[in-house]
Amino acid sequence: MYGPRGASPQVAEFRGGRAWGGSQRARKEGGMAKVLRCGEFMVKCPYVVHGATEEEVLREAAKHLAEVHHIKELTPGIAATVKRNIRTE
Fold first, then answer.
1. Which of 5, 44, 50, 56 has the lowest CB atom count within 10 Å?
2. Residue 79, CB half-sphere, CA atoms under 13 Å: how many?
3. CB neighbours (10 Å) of residue 10?
4. What are 1-58's pLDDT values in tens digits?
5. Whole-angstrom Cα distance, residue 63 to residue 31?
6. How buried is 23 (Cβ within 10 angstroms: 0-12 exposed, 13-18 middle, 19+ buried)?
7. Which residues pair with 50 in a beta bridge?
8. What is the reported pLDDT for 31?
9. Helix (H, G, I), strand (E, B) or coil at 12
10. What is the pLDDT of residue 23?
């Protein structure tokens, strides 16, 4: 198990002040991890996703938006908002 609820290494949830996810894996591989905190653009959402690339984070974020926020279509505007909020750790 990678983290809460068996999340994959790329997908993380924020629990008790600690983010779980792929950033540790990316650092071990010598790369900089990408991170997206949903709460930065969706009010009070604790979801955090880590990945090695922006595309990986965007793909996982799209799944989260569909499942939790009921945003089924990732329009160009929503994709741009998500991309603006992806940070490098």
1. 44
2. 9
3. 22
4. 333 343 333 333 433 333 444 444 444 455 789 999 999 999 899 999 999 999 999 9
5. 24
6. buried
7. 35
8. 72
9. strand
10. 41
Q: Is 40 helix (H, G, I), strand (E, B) or coil?
A: helix
* Torsion, CA 9, CA 24, CA 15, CA 2, rounded to 10: 30
Check residues 79 and 17 and name the one with the higher pLDDT.
Answer: 79
Do 48 and 14 form a contact (C-beta atoms < 8 A)? yes
Q: Which amino acid is at 42?
A: M
Tokens encoding 83? 């991309």
39 DSSP assignment: G
> CA 35 from chain center: how many Å?
6
- Say how far residue 33 (Cα) sits from the centre of its chain: 11
Say which residues have a Cβ less than 8 Å from residue 55's Cβ, sequence separation at least 6: none
Which residue stretches of 1-89 are H helix?
Answer: 23-28, 54-68, 76-84
Q: Give pTM, 2 decimals.
A: 0.65
